[in-house]
Protein backbone atom coordinates (compact mmCIF):
# COMPACT_ATOMS: atom_id res chain seq x y z
CA UNK A 1 0.00 0.00 0.00
CA UNK A 2 1.29 3.47 -0.90
CA UNK A 3 2.14 5.78 1.97
CA UNK A 4 0.42 9.16 2.19
CA UNK A 5 2.68 12.17 2.73
CA UNK A 6 1.55 15.57 3.93
CA UNK A 7 1.81 18.19 1.19
CA UNK A 8 3.58 21.51 1.56
CA UNK A 9 6.07 23.90 0.00
CA UNK A 10 9.33 24.74 1.76
CA UNK A 11 10.49 28.17 0.61
CA UNK A 12 11.35 31.69 1.68
CA UNK A 13 9.36 34.93 1.58
CA UNK A 14 7.91 36.84 -1.34
CA UNK A 15 8.37 40.24 0.24
CA UNK A 16 5.34 41.47 2.16
CA UNK A 17 3.08 39.30 0.01
CA UNK A 18 4.19 36.10 1.76
CA UNK A 19 6.23 36.59 4.94
CA UNK A 20 8.76 34.11 6.25
CA UNK A 21 9.85 34.02 9.89
CA UNK A 22 13.20 32.29 9.30
CA UNK A 23 15.22 31.30 6.23
CA UNK A 24 12.48 28.88 5.21
CA UNK A 25 8.82 28.37 5.96
CA UNK A 26 6.62 25.38 5.23
CA UNK A 27 3.64 26.81 3.37
CA UNK A 28 0.42 24.91 2.88
CA UNK A 29 0.35 23.49 -0.63
CA UNK A 30 -3.27 24.61 -0.98
CA UNK A 31 -2.17 28.21 -0.38
CA UNK A 32 0.08 28.25 -3.47
CA UNK A 33 -0.88 29.51 -6.92
CA UNK A 34 -2.34 26.67 -8.98
CA UNK A 35 -0.17 25.59 -11.91
CA UNK A 36 -1.64 24.32 -15.18
CA UNK A 37 -0.26 20.80 -15.34
CA UNK A 38 -0.95 20.56 -19.08
CA UNK A 39 1.65 23.25 -19.68
CA UNK A 40 4.49 21.14 -18.32
CA UNK A 41 5.32 18.66 -21.05
CA UNK A 42 8.95 18.04 -20.15
CA UNK A 43 10.22 20.49 -22.78
CA UNK A 44 10.96 23.33 -20.32
CA UNK A 45 9.96 25.85 -22.99
CA UNK A 46 9.59 28.50 -20.27
CA UNK A 47 13.40 28.41 -19.93
CA UNK A 48 14.10 28.76 -23.65
CA UNK A 49 16.22 26.48 -25.80
CA UNK A 50 17.62 23.49 -23.88
CA UNK A 51 21.04 23.64 -25.49
CA UNK A 52 23.47 20.81 -26.16
CA UNK A 53 23.71 17.48 -24.31
CA UNK A 54 26.26 17.32 -21.49
CA UNK A 55 28.22 14.05 -21.86
CA UNK A 56 29.65 14.00 -18.32
CA UNK A 57 26.29 14.62 -16.70
CA UNK A 58 24.68 12.06 -18.97
CA UNK A 59 27.21 9.50 -17.72
CA UNK A 60 26.45 10.41 -14.08
CA UNK A 61 22.74 9.91 -14.61
CA UNK A 62 23.37 6.66 -16.47
CA UNK A 63 24.94 5.25 -13.30
CA UNK A 64 21.90 6.25 -11.23
CA UNK A 65 19.57 4.91 -13.92
CA UNK A 66 21.31 1.54 -13.88
CA UNK A 67 20.93 1.27 -10.11
CA UNK A 68 17.25 2.18 -10.36
CA UNK A 69 16.68 -0.26 -13.22
CA UNK A 70 17.89 -3.06 -10.96
CA UNK A 71 14.95 -2.13 -8.70
CA UNK A 72 12.48 -1.89 -11.56
CA UNK A 73 12.46 1.93 -11.45
CA UNK A 74 13.44 4.72 -13.84
CA UNK A 75 14.28 8.41 -13.65
CA UNK A 76 11.52 10.61 -15.10
CA UNK A 77 12.20 11.98 -18.58
CA UNK A 78 11.76 15.62 -17.54
CA UNK A 79 14.44 15.29 -14.87
CA UNK A 80 16.87 13.62 -17.28
CA UNK A 81 16.32 16.35 -19.88
CA UNK A 82 16.85 19.16 -17.37
CA UNK A 83 19.98 17.63 -15.89
CA UNK A 84 21.69 16.79 -19.17
CA UNK A 85 20.98 19.91 -21.29
CA UNK A 86 23.57 22.69 -21.26
CA UNK A 87 21.09 25.59 -21.06
CA UNK A 88 18.92 23.95 -18.38
CA UNK A 89 21.26 22.31 -15.91
CA UNK A 90 22.24 24.68 -13.12
CA UNK A 91 19.43 27.17 -13.72
CA UNK A 92 17.94 26.56 -10.28
CA UNK A 93 21.35 26.98 -8.63
CA UNK A 94 21.79 30.31 -10.40
CA UNK A 95 18.47 31.75 -9.29
CA UNK A 96 18.41 30.44 -5.71
CA UNK A 97 18.38 33.23 -3.13
CA UNK A 98 19.31 30.88 -0.28
CA UNK A 99 22.36 29.26 -1.85
CA UNK A 100 20.76 25.99 -2.91
CA UNK A 101 22.77 23.76 -5.22
CA UNK A 102 22.41 20.62 -7.31
CA UNK A 103 23.55 17.48 -5.51
CA UNK A 104 22.76 14.07 -6.98
CA UNK A 105 22.66 10.99 -4.78
CA UNK A 106 22.48 7.33 -5.65
CA UNK A 107 19.09 5.70 -5.06
CA UNK A 108 18.25 5.54 -1.35
CA UNK A 109 15.60 3.18 0.03
CA UNK A 110 12.47 4.88 1.28
CA UNK A 111 12.37 4.52 5.07
CA UNK A 112 8.59 4.12 5.00
CA UNK A 113 7.63 2.26 1.81
CA UNK A 114 9.15 -1.04 0.66
CA UNK A 115 10.28 -0.95 -2.96
CA UNK A 116 10.25 2.85 -3.18
CA UNK A 117 13.43 4.92 -3.47
CA UNK A 118 14.62 8.50 -3.02
CA UNK A 119 17.09 10.26 -5.31
CA UNK A 120 18.31 13.56 -3.88
CA UNK A 121 18.90 16.22 -6.53
CA UNK A 122 18.96 19.60 -4.75
CA UNK A 123 19.92 20.90 -1.31
CA UNK A 124 20.18 24.07 0.72
CA UNK A 125 23.74 25.24 1.39
CA UNK A 126 23.32 24.48 5.11
CA UNK A 127 21.14 21.41 4.56
CA UNK A 128 18.12 23.11 6.10
CA UNK A 129 16.07 21.38 3.41
CA UNK A 130 16.86 18.79 0.75
CA UNK A 131 14.77 17.88 -2.30
CA UNK A 132 14.44 14.39 -3.73
CA UNK A 133 12.64 12.47 -6.41
CA UNK A 134 10.42 9.85 -4.82
CA UNK A 135 10.03 6.79 -7.05
CA UNK A 136 7.42 4.10 -6.43
CA UNK A 137 7.28 0.56 -7.86
CA UNK A 138 4.00 1.56 -9.55
CA UNK A 139 5.96 3.99 -11.75
CA UNK A 140 4.67 7.06 -9.91
CA UNK A 141 7.34 9.73 -9.40
CA UNK A 142 6.97 13.01 -7.53
CA UNK A 143 9.12 15.50 -5.62
CA UNK A 144 9.48 15.57 -1.85
CA UNK A 145 11.57 17.57 0.57
CA UNK A 146 12.95 16.81 4.00
CA UNK A 147 15.17 18.30 6.66
CA UNK A 148 16.99 14.95 6.71
CA UNK A 149 19.80 14.01 4.36
CA UNK A 150 18.93 10.36 3.87
CA UNK A 151 22.26 9.59 2.26
CA UNK A 152 23.99 10.72 5.46
CA UNK A 153 21.36 9.01 7.62
CA UNK A 154 21.99 5.61 6.04
CA UNK A 155 25.76 6.09 6.12
CA UNK A 156 25.65 6.99 9.82
CA UNK A 157 23.50 3.97 10.63
CA UNK A 158 25.91 1.63 8.88
CA UNK A 159 29.12 3.23 10.19
CA UNK A 160 30.55 2.28 13.58
CA UNK A 161 30.77 5.23 15.95
CA UNK A 162 28.19 7.33 14.11
CA UNK A 163 24.56 7.94 14.97
CA UNK A 164 21.87 9.03 12.51
CA UNK A 165 19.86 12.15 13.36
CA UNK A 166 16.64 10.16 13.30
CA UNK A 167 15.34 6.65 13.91
CA UNK A 168 15.15 5.14 10.44
CA UNK A 169 13.06 2.29 11.83
CA UNK A 170 10.32 4.61 13.13
CA UNK A 171 7.80 4.85 10.25
CA UNK A 172 5.73 7.55 11.93
CA UNK A 173 8.70 9.87 12.45
CA UNK A 174 10.03 9.18 8.97
CA UNK A 175 6.72 9.85 7.25
CA UNK A 176 6.50 13.15 9.11
CA UNK A 177 10.01 14.05 7.92
CA UNK A 178 9.09 13.72 4.23
CA UNK A 179 6.86 16.34 2.64
CA UNK A 180 5.25 15.99 -0.81
CA UNK A 181 5.84 19.23 -2.73
CA UNK A 182 5.28 18.75 -6.48
CA UNK A 183 3.65 16.18 -8.78
CA UNK A 184 6.49 16.35 -11.34
CA UNK A 185 10.06 17.57 -11.44
CA UNK A 186 9.26 20.22 -14.04
CA UNK A 187 6.50 21.71 -11.89
CA UNK A 188 8.88 21.81 -8.93
CA UNK A 189 11.53 23.51 -11.08
CA UNK A 190 9.07 26.06 -12.44
CA UNK A 191 7.70 27.08 -9.05
CA UNK A 192 11.20 27.31 -7.56
CA UNK A 193 12.42 29.36 -10.53
CA UNK A 194 9.46 31.76 -10.44
CA UNK A 195 9.53 32.29 -6.69
CA UNK A 196 13.25 32.95 -6.49
CA UNK A 197 13.07 35.45 -9.35
CA UNK A 198 10.16 37.12 -7.57
CA UNK A 199 12.15 37.37 -4.35
CA UNK A 200 14.70 39.66 -5.98
CA UNK A 201 11.95 41.96 -7.21
CA UNK A 202 9.75 41.98 -4.10
CA UNK A 203 12.46 42.18 -1.46
CA UNK A 204 13.59 45.63 -2.64
CA UNK A 205 10.17 47.21 -2.25
CA UNK A 206 6.99 47.86 -4.25
CA UNK A 207 8.70 50.02 -6.87
CA UNK A 208 10.63 46.99 -8.14
CA UNK A 209 7.38 45.18 -8.80
CA UNK A 210 6.81 47.56 -11.70
CA UNK A 211 9.42 45.50 -13.57
CA UNK A 212 7.57 42.19 -13.29
CA UNK A 213 6.92 40.40 -16.55
CA UNK A 214 3.46 38.96 -17.18
CA UNK A 215 4.37 35.51 -15.88
CA UNK A 216 5.75 36.74 -12.58
CA UNK A 217 2.91 39.21 -12.16
CA UNK A 218 0.31 36.48 -12.62
CA UNK A 219 1.97 34.38 -9.91
CA UNK A 220 2.16 37.28 -7.47
CA UNK A 221 -1.43 38.33 -8.21
CA UNK A 222 -2.51 35.17 -6.41
CA UNK A 223 -1.25 36.65 -3.14
CA UNK A 224 -2.52 40.14 -3.89
CA UNK A 225 -6.01 38.79 -4.50
CA UNK A 226 -6.02 36.52 -1.44
CA UNK A 227 -3.90 37.82 1.46
CA UNK A 228 -4.88 34.73 3.46
CA UNK A 229 -2.73 32.66 1.07
CA UNK A 230 0.35 34.21 2.65
CA UNK A 231 -0.26 32.34 5.87
Coarse morphology: globular
Computed over alpha carbons, the radius of gyration is 18 Å
Residue runs with pLDDT of under 50 for 5 or more positions: none
How many beta-strand segments? 8
Helical content stands at 25-40%
Largest sheet: 6 strands, antiparallel
Order of helices and strands: EEHHHEEEEEHHEHH
Entry keywords:
231 residues, alpha+beta, two-stranded antiparallel sheet
What does this structure look like?
The structure is a single chain. The protein has 231 residues and is α+β, with helices and mostly antiparallel strands. The chain has one domain (8-230). It has seven helices and eight strands, in the order ββαααβββββααβαα. Strands 3, 4, 5, 6, 7 and 8 form a six-stranded antiparallel sheet that branches. A two-stranded antiparallel ribbon has the order 1-2. α6 (185-202) packs across α7. The mean pLDDT is 93.
Helix-strand layout with pairing:
Layout: E1 8-11, E2 25-28, H1 55-69, H2 77-84, H3 91-95, E3 101-102, E4 108-109, E5 117-123, E6 130-135, E7 141-146, H4 150-158, H5 171-177, E8 178-182, H6 185-202, H7 214-225
Antiparallel strand pairs: 1-2, 3-5, 4-5, 5-6, 6-7, 7-8
Helix pairs in contact: 6-7
Short description:
The protein has helices spanning 55-69, 77-84, 91-95, 150-158, 171-177, 185-202, 214-225, and strands at 8-11, 25-28, 101-102, 108-109, 117-123, 130-135, 141-146, 178-182. It is α+β, with helices and mostly antiparallel strands and 231 residues long.
